[in-house]
Structure prediction request, 225 residues.
Amino acid sequence: DVKVTQSSRYLVKRTGEKVFLECVQDMDHENMFWYRQDPGLGLRLIYFSYDVKMKEKGDIPEGYSVSREKKERFSLILESASTNQTSMYLCASSLTRTGLEQYFGPGTRLTVT
Amino acid sequence: RKEVEQDPGPFNVPEGATVAFNCTYSNSASQSFFWYRQDCRKEPKLLMSVYSSGNEDGRFTAQLNRASQYISLLIRDSKLSDSATYLCVVNSNSGGYQKVTFGTGTKLQVIP
Prediction:
């Protein structure tokens, strides 16, 4: 079974703090994704990566950056957290660049106060 | 217009009922389609792919109508355990990558 893990289930941070969200997958998948999910807005893609050290902007990259130094690990960074970044963050991976089935981690609920 | 649109529901149905959800998409060049299921406070998981000829998996039937640009999910003999949010997912080719767009989901509540 594919396993995607995220470093925290719940996180509370203060406005202006730098926040790191970590995601690890154990199935040697090429593609990794970061989404945020908000009521009424659904899942929105922040960034994705199709290879080590490669990254592509998704639909809402502003205020975020990412890092992929190893194939199994994809990090989302909030350089200076703001209250409008309070959300559920979901990491996903898929086998190939055209990879159709995405496997999701359990999510991190981030609250910025 | 949203790229992928779903009725948010909730659909409240009694056990044993048949229920159907539709999902419309705006990009006529979309290539592949899926239904994901998301339980409350859990991550989305793939329920089934949607093939052009329609496909069935037990009590679940998925259909694609390219002319009208919608996909559907039919659930027969609803069980309490079917209560969840059902996400429609559409893939299209964008600059050499598969662009994956999720709908906002349709909530189903099956009532005893």
User: Anything to note?
Assistant: The interface with chain B takes residues 33, 35, 40-43, 45, 48, 50, 56, 90, 97-102, 104-107 of chain A (CB under 8 Å). The longest strand of chain A covers residues 31-38. Chain A has no helices and eleven strands. The mean pLDDT of chain A is 93.
